[in-house]
Amino acid sequence: MRPGGSLLLMGGTGGRRIGHGLGIVPAATAALPPFTAALALELAPVRVNLIAAGFVDTPLSATLLGDKLEERRAELRATLPIGRVVSPADVAALAVHLMTNTALTGATYDIDGGQQFVW
After folding, report:
1. Which tens digit of pLDDT belongs to each residue from 20-40?
2. Strand spans (E) along 27-87
3. Whether pLDDT at 19 is above 90
4. CB within 8 A of 25, min separation 6: which ones?
5. DSSP annotation of 11
């Protein structure tokens, strides 16, 4: 990667919530922010950042939730401060910003519609 380039990692907010049946997922996602910060120092001047997504309305989400998808969407629209579900376009816009803003490195950026503040 060229100096000044950008490495963007994708993770989730699942590391902040421990639950039965989640296995290693919370531990793996919780390890990503310090890993990102360490990589930013190690790889500088390559910039390294992490997107930590909450629920994003994707085909994978639809597959995982099956017939409970509409119920989950309605719940999120009713409880999230943004009043809607996070879309892939929202995540893409953040990714483009992180890759083009040359002042950002070593940080984790949550994109969860404010979910962490209401649950």
Report:
1. 777 788 888 889 999 999 999
2. 47-53
3. no
4. 12, 14, 15
5. E
